[in-house]
Amino acid sequence: MAGVTSLGLGSGIDVRGIVDSLVAAERGPQESLLTRQEADLQAKLSSFGIFKGALAEVRTSLAGLSQGSDFGKLTGTSSNEEVVGVSVSSNAEQGSFKVESKQLAQAHSLASAGFAESNDIVGTGTITIKFGQPEYTENETTGELDYDGFKQNSDRGTLTLTLDETNNTLVGMRDAINEQDAGVSASIIYDGSAYRLVMSSDETGLENSMKITVDDPSLSQFEYNENNALMEETQIAQDAIMSINGLEVTNSSNKFDKALKGVNIDLKDVAPGKTIELNIERSTAGLGEALQGFVEKYNELAVSVKSLTAYDPASQTGSALLGDATVRTGMNQIRSVLGSMVSGLEKTSIRTLADLGVTTELDGQLKFDGSKLEAALEKDPEGVASIFTVLGRPDNDAVKYVSSSDDTEIGAYSVNISQAATTGELSGANNSISSLVIAEGINDSFRVRVDGNLSASITLTAGTYGSADELATEIQARINGDKTLRGADAKVQVSFDSDNNRFVMKSSSFGSESTVDITESTAGALGLSVAEGVAGTDVEGTINGVAAEGKGQHLIGKNDLKLFIQESIVGDLGKVTFSRGLMERLDGVFGGLLDSDGSLASKTKGLQKTLDEVADDRIKLDDKVEKYEARMLKRFNKMDAILGQFQATGGALSQQLAGLPYNNLSK
């Protein structure tokens, strides 16, 4: 400590004790005030931390309530998931069904003859692989079925592969097939004595069998068709078979998505003679649990707030957050939202949380009646979802709500369609069909542009076609098999217009960007001359009487309400009721309290700043007291020194006086 630190050796006075007492008297009141301020601030910070934690738990519990599209959703259960799996969509019909899994679907697989080495030359020429269903006729002599026809699957592409000196080995052929990614996979298997090329269709089912033709005798060992079936059929193509309530149903894959409305059935194994129960019913457990969890967390918050803001009349003391405006305002906002009606649902039967069984008790806590929620879900599951989430509810099945934005206002929107969306089409510009004969290198090639994507040169299989419908199948398969178009998911449907003797090509997409054009062609006699098609049209209409933007089948309002309109639907399509639900509002309140720029962050930041100022004041007080102590020590030590001098002088005078003569006579 600075200054003189004498302990009163000059006069014998306890200077240290006197100064310490003075310092304590100087420090005491100010230090007590700072201690009280610090304790109060720490108590408030701690209390706000408890309040913030309780709020965060309630906000977290809202996550389970925000997925409104799952509320009351239909669920499917199977009595034997290992054999039959089931899932459902929102349009499924409730019920119980008895299912028997009789046969699983298989993909067609063919194996070539053996080769001594995997790099052996296989031949040169062109190999064509088509997909479809073999046709059989019973042999009158043997009674067996003879493979004598093939019905092409126009939804599958056709693979044409040219083998030359760059790829005409067994390995080269395998790689060339796989690089095409055209629906068939190739592999080389060593069977113990030779290498064999195995080709398998990527899709199961009878209609996805392979037909393989070649144009050069050197490749004849790879043929598999009604004329030459030289490859070994290692696995036949077959459909999946099951029965539903005794009715037999077949499908090309093990996933049945059309047998029951809105129900996807997945055959995983066969179990002939065993009945498996499928139950399609509406689930309410998820929402009930989520609501119960929310109610519990809210009640914990209410109890916490009551404790943090309590007042004890006996001791006349209050808790740290008694009368705090931030807590009071925040809780009032939360209670207001919980008790309010959802805007946009004023004319519906389900409008508030109370309609779902969540009510407020006299003590301010919430109570949940699960039976009321179950009744509401049974009556109107979409209405229940509207209580919680942003949702548009069309009253016409031809309209689907897609999305919205923050600019979309709550309310009922009328929808009127003046023009339905259409697909791009090429028909009127095509010339009539004058021949069904395709000659290789003469009239067998063309290029198309579908939805702006230009194909490579497409080559049709040479030959004489029995009908225009048969040729339409070939054209569609070739176009949809083009690698560039497949990569862009651009597809067409080709049909024969017998009234006008021409082919009609339609894009599978809708809207003004949907187009089909023939850009190059040698196949004019087939009705495939160079021509520009007619682009599709976007849907046109109004939302609430205001012209909306059309993109394909999507209609988008000025306030970002986005709807999907089914094709060929025009006229008045009723209304779409748009509501935001309580969860968005509640989350907004919690965000205003809990987010980094929220009121609690601002409040605690201010308290922490004040607490830091108290710490600064302590430092200042220490400095002030230290200087005060130094001054007092200096003064008292100086006084002590003077007193010491006085005492020394007095002693000397006393001795001198005692030595005077008259002083001795008087004794």
Q: How would you describe this structure to a colleague?
A:
- By secondary structure, this protein is of the alpha+beta class.
- It has twelve helices and 39 strands.
- The strands form eleven sheets. The protein has a five-stranded antiparallel sheet with strand order 1-16-3-12-13, with no helix packed on it.
- A hairpin with a 2-residue loop joins strand 26 and strand 27 (453-454).
- Helix 1 packs antiparallel against helix 11 and helix 5 packs antiparallel against helix 10 (581-594).
- The radius of gyration is 45 Å and the shape is elongated.
Structure, briefly:
The chain is α+β, with helices and mostly antiparallel strands. The chain is 32% helix and 30% strand.
